[in-house]
Design a protein that fits this description.
Elements lengths: L1 H21 L12 H4 L3 H21 L4 H25 L10 H13 L1 H4 L6 E5 L9 H10 L4 E5 L3 H13 L5 E6 L8 E6 L6 E3 L17 E5 L6 E6 L8 H14 L8 E6 L4 H4 L14 E2 H5 L20 E5 L3 E8 L13 E7 L2
Parallel strand pairs: 1-2, 7-8
Antiparallel strand pairs: 1-12, 2-4, 3-4, 5-6, 6-7, 8-10, 9-10, 11-12
Helix pairs in contact: 1-4, 3-4, 5-7, 7-8
Length: 365
């Protein structure tokens, strides 16, 4: 009788813990301390489950009185691993696309600049490159080279200063792909407190509408987000995102940042919204903040999910992609169709702890 009660208690407790870790949205716990971190690393959770299964298999062989309890725990771990694996596969593991040759891309950009009037039209695609640079760590030349290789029209660069943004723009202009630079800095003490947005003049004139001061209703709380709106009202609102990380003393600000970003991603904006950057959140953390079918945050869809790359880890760059967490995103309202999206794995040694992400979007209608 005692062994049955012990097995039941252990089994139910384990089931409850694993259920919360596998799908915290069921209980509304996805934005709570500890659980928010645990659900971020689904690939790592699968690896841990396999390791625990191996340990339990040894216990099963060596400790006869605990065999039934051990077997029950093994069944639960198998189910936990299977659920997480299924979620990862459903969100997409991406593809190993070959990087574009930078020299060829620069030549193509120069050719395109000579025929700008012919190339630009309302239905032209927009390529968005986003990279948290860890305080300008890769350097302006490396960032510009990558932007040219990807033929980026928009760069969202959290933790990038205005000085570096100007150097990037100068390098891209020399290669035939000029950019306007917009930076919001909460202070000049820490480079993390700057976010820079580069926009091609081909998209028209843009003006920054987000506040310089921190906190809603004008900005995210701790780290700056740049909102740029088209001056003539034609074209998408472009948002370079940097939400604070969910460390213990910033949990309230982190939740507030996600709420505020959801409000900014609205179909009521003329031309729609494209937002990209370091959200410090996975789609699990977005749960409960979607306002329309198919969206994950406000009215915005996640380009990674649409393109089948939603489970590819973008942080930390030193970890394998399937063991990392996908916290860097490109989102867009339904006005924009996702043509491609991928996590770039060729810059892992460039100095940043984040991987860049790139997506190409085309206006619908």
């Amino acid at each position: 009788m005692f062994s049955f009660l012990f097995r039941a208690v252990v089994g139910l407790a384990t089931l409850a813990i694993l259920t919360v870790l596998a799908w915290p949205e069921l209980f509304g716990l996805q934005n709570t301390w500890v659980v928010a971190h645990a659900v971020s690393f689904r690939g790592l959770a699968v690896v841990v489950a396999v390791a625990l299964l191996a340990l339990l298999a040894i216990l099963l062989l060596l400790v006869r009185p605990l065999r039934r309890t051990t077997a029950l725990l093994m069944v639960l771990l198998v189910a936990f691993g299977a659920v997480n694996t299924g979620i990862l596969l459903h969100r997409g593991l991406g593809s190993a696309a070959a990087p574009t040759d930078p020299a060829a891309a620069a030549a193509a950009a120069a050719d395109a600049a000579a025929t700008t009037d012919l190339a630009v039209d309302a239905g032209a695609p927009i390529t968005v490159l986003s990279w948290n640079t860890l305080g300008d760590a890769p350097g302006a030349d490396a960032i510009a080279e990558l932007a040219l290789a990807e033929e980026a029209d928009v760069l969202t660069l959290p933790e990038t200063t205005e000085e570096t943004g100007v150097l990037i723009a100068e390098a891209m202009r020399a290669a035939g792909r000029p950019m306007w630079v917009h930076t919001v800095s909460f202070d000049l003490i820490s480079k993390a407190r700057s976010t820079t947005l580069l926009i091609s003049p081909d998209l028209g004139d843009y003006t920054v509408t987000s506040a310089e001061g921190s906190g809603p209703p004008g900005n995210t709380n701790v780290l700056p987000t740049v909102i740029a709106a088209p001056v003539d009202g034609a074209g998408p609102t472009i948002i370079a995102v940097h939400a604070v990380a969910p460390i213990q003393w910033e949990m309230s600000n982190w939740r507030s940042d996600l709420d505020w970003l959801a409000e900014q991603c609205s179909t009521s904006s003329t031309g729609g919204v494209i937002m990209a950057g370091d959200f410090n959140a996975t789609v699990d953390h977005f749960a409960g903040r979607a306002t329309s079918d198919g969206a994950v945050l406000g009215d915005c869809r996640d380009a990674g999910l649409v393109a089948g790359a939603g489970a590819v880890g973008t942080w930390p760059a030193w970890a394998p992609t399937l063991l990392g967490t996908p916290i860097d995103h490109v989102l867009a309202t339904p006005d924009w169709q996702v043509e491609r999206m991928r996590v770039i794995g060729t810059e892992d040694s460039a100095g940043s702890d984040h991987r860049p992400v790139v997506a190409t979007l085309t206006a619908i209608g």
